[in-house]
Amino acid sequence: MSIFCTSLRVKNIGRELFPGPGFLQDGDVVEIIGEQSTGKSTILQDLMITCLLPEDHDGCMSGVIYFDLDYHFDLLRVVAIIEQRTQGTENDIQNWLKNFHLIRCADMEQLVISLHAIEPLIANSKIPVGMIILDSISALHWVDSNAGNNSQYLKEAKLRKIVQVLQALKERYKLCILASTQQLLKKDCRQNRDDEEEVVPYKPFLCRQWLEFVKHRFVVTKDDHEEVTTRKILCLSSKMDTKQFVIDEKGFHLVKA
Amino acid sequence: MPIQLLAGMCPALTSEILMQLTSKGIKQVIDFVSMDPEKITALCGLPFKKVLSIRRVLLAQYSAFPVNGLDLYNEALSTLAVLSTSCSNLDEILDCGVYTGEVTEFVGVSVSGKTQLCQSLTIQVVGELEQNVVYIDTTGGWSVKRAADITRTRFPQKQVSSVLSRIQLCQCYDIKELQECLEQLQKSLHNQPDCFYSSLKLVVVDSVSAVLGSSFVSGTYVEGCSLLQSIGRRLNALAKDFAIAVIITNDMVSAASTTSTEFYSMKPALGRCWTFVPSVRVVLEPDKEPCQLWECKYADKSCSLFEPTIKAIVDKSVRSPRQSTLLKITNAGVANGT
Amino acid sequence: MNFMSANHLYGKHGDGLQHISTSCFAIDNLLDGGFPLGHVSQVAGESASGKTQLCFQLCINVQIPSSFGGMGANSIYVDTENTFISSRLLEMAESTVENLRKRATEVKGLPTPDTFLSTIYLFRCQEAVQLLSVAHQLFDFIKQHPTVKLIVVDSIAHCLRSEEDSKTRLRFLHNLAEIFRKLSRDFHLAVVIINQVSTKLSASFHGTSSVIPALGAIWSNVPSVKLMLTKQNGRRLAIVYKSLTHPRRVVDYDITKDGFRDAASGRSTSMIFSQATANDLLCNDFTQNSQTFKVRRSPEKSTEFEEKTKNKRTRSTESNHSDLSQSHPGDEGCCVEVDFFHEMPPSHHPESRDDGQSSPSSPILLSGSARKKRRFT
């Protein structure tokens, strides 16, 4: 029982952010990594809003399933951004929100089971689901790692199962998978002091299957120097230049060079 | 703990079927659900329809239920509240005050006003907004007299005992006690044994680092991080599920600085994994070292009658940019600093 | 876990907790009567600032009988620096007894200086691990001696600083912090910890250095009440910079032959009250409930008082040897010490215990007579 969707539902999303055509394509897997307060969730929510909005607001009118794993999701903030962007009426916004689904899981086990359980929701949805968002996939990392087993292979078992089910959903329904990852391990900067290159603050710690599953990997950084906040996003999976961006009441915008 | 497959979990899961499944290595719910039903049928020799029906029941029972955006929106509109701090400077940098549904963290060195701020906010919520507060004290810094003094100064027309009756206090001095306290609180909020919990709007934990700071010295790094992450999730879940504002305080510890210009810098305690827990973080910095003698305007140079002015910096916020303001601790609690 | 209503606590303690006076009214006033029961307090300062003197004063003041408005309770003294000198304690106890005698309506039933000393339970340790062991044992000890309402640790920095491994030191700090907090909560007593100081270098280039309490940021958040004893221009100043109910203040204090006291009048400039209230407030109440015992300390009388006690002291030092030789065999003005390797209940009769037979490696167990011998040889 498989359903194939051939239309490019998620066009227009993330203009200029993605290498190649410049925007997100069906079946892409995106990972945004960063330390606390760097803007990972904001970027994901911005991409999500574009997915929910109708075509006349440059959106895709597609459904979104959002896994709020770190319990930080604030719907009213998302609505505020939608209002700023579209000046839509209350009725419109409520209609658009009907295609949004939020799921909160207590642990990794429930996350795996819930990912399996959403298939009927995706299959039977009136409006096709465009993306599944996991914010953040690392929010359960330590709890999961500590769940008894000493073997690294067994520790990563649940994450591998997650990758498996996401792979199946992605192939069957041609939707995008977006995830944010908290930078839980500190990158040792001492080794690179001699290099002229800028040190990328990224130290991978999730399992190999996840690392291979992700197509576009971004790292976001924030620098608070003398009251001025500089936010940068760089793409690890391609040779795209580091870009600066800002976050305001309309969401996330790349700064034109 | 992973959920094991047991007979009787659903009508179709009989003991015979269970035995066939476990003999092939499918012992947990997660194993059953992750495997393709056709594969299970082929592997265990079970009827396909039975496998499907077991799968349907297990998925319905153990998965998290998706909430529709519209329902969530209506619920959020009716339950969101912003708790004003009674100090206009602080309200301004926090975008009107402390929000329910999220964890706000106040970080500062010793004697920077964290406990005073917590007590001041508590009295504001119980006195002005007339909502209930649970105060979890892990340091012994809670003072009934101070709470009574603030109440008398700020609400002279109200009776101190009736204002204080809206505060439930719990003293937890180790991790186990804190976990028990949070569990009990969660249960009470769920079951609502009395009307106290229906108007509970604020939970204060002063401070988290007093009990959680020891989690790295005993046990491995992974165990420590796991404990912090689970307590962090619990606090966030409390805030989100019951639309409560959770305020926590944290200490500062010295940071190993990589740059040569600053060799004495401070960072919030509890390490990197705790930085992801709160949604809003405010750093409190007193302008002078409290344990030393300050220069004084009076002729008697070593006498000082002044309190330090505290600089409050919004370090992390989903709503406000990075900004700072000045505060002072007075008889009435926290007030604008000059 | 027990959830208590703040209202219930308010009713229980009224507007204040019980406190142990420091005998320095200026400091007592900033702490609502003294060091509070149920909380951990810290006194830091450079050497010779009077930290140990303050500890002795607290150990004596906690024992003042309830008929004089005191608590009539006992204390535990954990000594890590060998600063416990019973002769000094005796001197301070004598002065206190004099005070009580002057104000008492009857002389019968007054405690003697020796009684004051005999109910201070002394624990000695040198290393951090010994301190931790003592702290653990205090739970059972206090259950057996429920009259204990004060624990003094002099000092915590001494044994922890010698711990080189930072991870072990951290672990000790966290454990000790947890134990002291639980002791103060479960038994409702005051825990007063003495801390040394260390130098903090300023972050700026023109590095000025400043003096802060030792043991770093992790310990600094443990006590609820913090004092710093310092000197400036010949004045002894106490900075009460963390208190449960009062803002930061600096006051004068002094250390006289009688013990820890207020500075002589004319030097406390930190009073911000009007003159009228100052006179009222000069009543040195030991607790808020005192009704029978009030010491009025007006400036002219204090000098007269000091004159009297000075004469008394000169007399007593001359006749020290003869006095002690006349003391009772069972009540030699010694403090009760406890050997923490053997859980022996302390006894008031030094002869009944091992007499100075300890080997150098075991914790010091001295009987009163053995210590006295040390004093005079």
Automatic annotation (TrEMBL), chain A:
Q: What is any Pfam family matched here?
A: Rad51
Which part of the chain is the RecA family profile domain? 2-183
Signal peptide (UniProt feature, chain positions): none
The cross-references to Gene3D superfamilies, in alphabetical order and at most eight, read: P-loop containing nucleotide triphosphate hydrolases (3.40.50.300)
Q: What name does this protein carry?
A: RecA family profile 1 domain-containing protein
Automatic annotation (TrEMBL), chain B:
One Pfam family matching this protein: Rad51
Where the record annotates domain RecA family profile, the positions are: 79-252
- Asked if Translocase is a keyword of the record, the answer is no
Query: Which UniProt keyword terms apply here?
Result: ATP-binding, DNA damage, DNA recombination, DNA repair, DNA-binding, Nucleotide-binding, Nucleus
* Location within or outside the cell: Nucleus
PANTHER family xrefs: DNA REPAIR PROTEIN RAD51 HOMOLOG 4
Give the UniProt family note.
Answer: Belongs to the RecA family. RAD51 subfamily.
- From the Swiss-Prot or TrEMBL record, give the protein name: RecA family profile 1 domain-containing protein
Record the organism: Clavelina lepadiformis
TrEMBL record, chain C:
Against InterPro entries, the record matches this protein to:
HR_Repair_Mediator, P-loop_NTPase, Rad51_C, RecA_ATP-bd
- Per the UniProt record, one Pfam family is Rad51
Domain (RecA family profile): residue spans on this chain: 16-197
Q: Which SUPFAM superfamilies match?
A: P-loop containing nucleoside triphosphate hydrolases
Which residues lie in Basic and acidic residues bias regions? 297-321, 339-356
Q: Which domain of life is it from?
A: Eukaryota
Compartment(s) of residence: Nucleus
Keywords of the record:
ATP-binding, DNA damage, DNA repair, Nucleotide-binding, Nucleus
Segments of this protein annotated with the region Disordered: 293-377
Compositionally biased region (Low complexity): 358-369
UniProt cross-references to PANTHER family, sorted A to Z:
DNA REPAIR PROTEIN RAD51 HOMOLOG 3, DNA REPAIR PROTEIN RAD51 HOMOLOG 3 RAD51C
Q: What is this protein called?
A: DNA repair protein RAD51 homolog 3
- UniProt organism field: Clavelina lepadiformis
